[in-house]
Amino acid sequence: MAGRSVLVSGSDGRIGKATVRELQAHGYEVTPADIRQTQPWMTQIVDFEDMGQVVGVMQGHDAVVHLAAIPSPSMHTNEVVFRNNVVSTFNVLEAAAILGIKKVVMASSISALGYAFRHLPFNPLRLPIDETHPMLSQDSYGLSKMVGEELAGGFARRLPELSLASLRFTLVVDEQQREWIGPARKQPPDSAATHGAFWTFVDVRDAAAACRLALEYNEPGHEAFLICAPQIYRPEDLRDLFAKYFPGEYPVAERLRGQDSPVDCSKAERLLGWRARYNWDGEPL
User: Fold this and answer.
1) Is residue 53 assigned to a domain?
2) pLDDT for res 207
């Protein structure tokens, strides 16, 4: 795909900024698009809830990386979060169908599993968790990501030649997040959002690399990929954390020990050639 034109929605957000730079560094012609401009590049100002604007900005591109979304249910009302994320995703997929764009990479989330912003507590069915674990969301954000993946599956059935990838990012760590994680590691974890992401993380540079590698994966159909580092950022033993915050009986693989991540990203390694390169502190793994 290098040398071809790619639209990046949400280009001025946390993952978007890194993805634009990653694609440009690998020879892609990138059109950044967002609801507002915060970066020095020529951001196309687009409301991705408006179908006409989406078709207009996507014209002339070979592929789309769709990152535009409200990234949690914390700052907006539930209906705003759900509407924005679902309608924008539908519009991107429908515009791709109209324009004959056959490659779309979308930001999904580990929150689609349902644990991060749950209203009622429940336990994982098994550890480690991989892409075969059911999505069990209760909240507006997790539900919006579940529906986004269902939309991708529907469009793949409608147009079998499409190649669609949903990247289930966990906590994405940049310099701002690193400033939070360092002191937070010395305190007991008490946030449902951090529990529900199972204390996993991914460096923003690794998230951007996953977007690029997913662009280069051209198998038809829709695939979801969990994207996180191979260890948690907490200093405690993983088994102690789960015993405290997810008490109960469920299968746990014998190999999971210490700071091993309870999320299995081997599918992304196998099909995309992706592997995390950075620890929570920004240093190489």
Assistant:
1) yes
2) 98
Query: 274 and 210 in contact (C-beta within 8 Å)?
Result: yes
DSSP 34-59: ESS--SSS--EE--TT-HHHHHHHHT
Residue 247 lies in a domain: yes
Q: Is-contact 141 72, C-beta < 8 A?
A: yes
SS (H, E, C) 225-252: EEECCCECCCCCCHHHHHHHHCCCCCCE
- Beta strand pairing status for 171-173 and 63-66? unpaired
Nearest to 229 by CA among 186, 254, 263: 263
Averaged pLDDT for residues 10-18: 97
Q: 269-272 — which CB contacts under 8 Å span 24+ positions?
A: 271/217, 271/219, 271/223, 271/225, 272/210, 272/213, 272/214, 272/216, 272/217, 272/225
Using CA atoms, how far apart are residues 260 and 90, in angstroms rounded to an integer? 36
Instruction: With a cut of 90, say whether residue 101 has pLDDT above it.
Output: yes
Q: How many CA atoms lie within 13 A of 76 on its CB side?
A: 14
- 120, part of any domain: yes
Return the pLDDT at 2.
Answer: 60
Domains of the chain: total: 1
Using alpha carbons, list the distances in angstroms from residue 195 to 134, 175, 233, 248, 277: 18, 21, 12, 15, 23
Q: Which residues pair with 109 in a beta bridge?
A: 169
Domain that holds residue 124: 5-272
pLDDT at 3: 65
Residue 14 has a pLDDT of 96
Domain of 15, CATH number, reads 3.40.50.720
Q: Where are the beta strands (DSSP E) in 67-200?
A: 103-109, 163-169, 171-173
Q: Alpha-carbon distance 113 to 207, whole Å?
A: 19
pTM of the entire structure? 0.97
Question: How far is C-alpha 65 from the geometric centre of its chain's CA atoms?
Answer: 11
